[in-house]
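Question:
Now give any protein.
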Amino acid sequence: MSRRERGRPGMSRPGVGMSLRIENRQRVLKLDTPDIRRLVGLILDDHGSSDADLTIVFARDGFVRELNASYRDIDRTTDVLAFATCDGEPPGVTGDPEEIEHVLGDVVISTDRAIAQAPRYRRTPEREILKLVAHGVLHLVGHDHATSSERTKMRNLENRYLRTLSKNRQ
């Protein structure tokens, strides 16, 4: 992993051991990849997964709709999808746990949905992207929102990480 992927020298470097792959399949919104990396690092560090590998894909509605239909049998787009691996290890992997990569999974975000829903939440599209990144990564580390209390907890965590990111930027 390059020094750039691990963080900037002289700064607090959350997620220093993580491998984050960002795949940009859209051109409607400029991504703030340094902030995305810092946000993911904060969440992973806080959940004891600072050495995890994950991919975040930014795409248009059509791509996200296809995935939603294929994997969830819901034929419409959505703002964020999270595909977690089983216990962080590919099936059939054996060996020393220290030597096995800790693969969390993939997060797929619709930039079209982020742009469309940002005004409703009084956010910029860029801030909505960060909120969706937090949401997706929280799913990968085990959070859900099936109940009202889980939904509240997840929303509070999303907001806490975004506040922390903003404070660290200043």
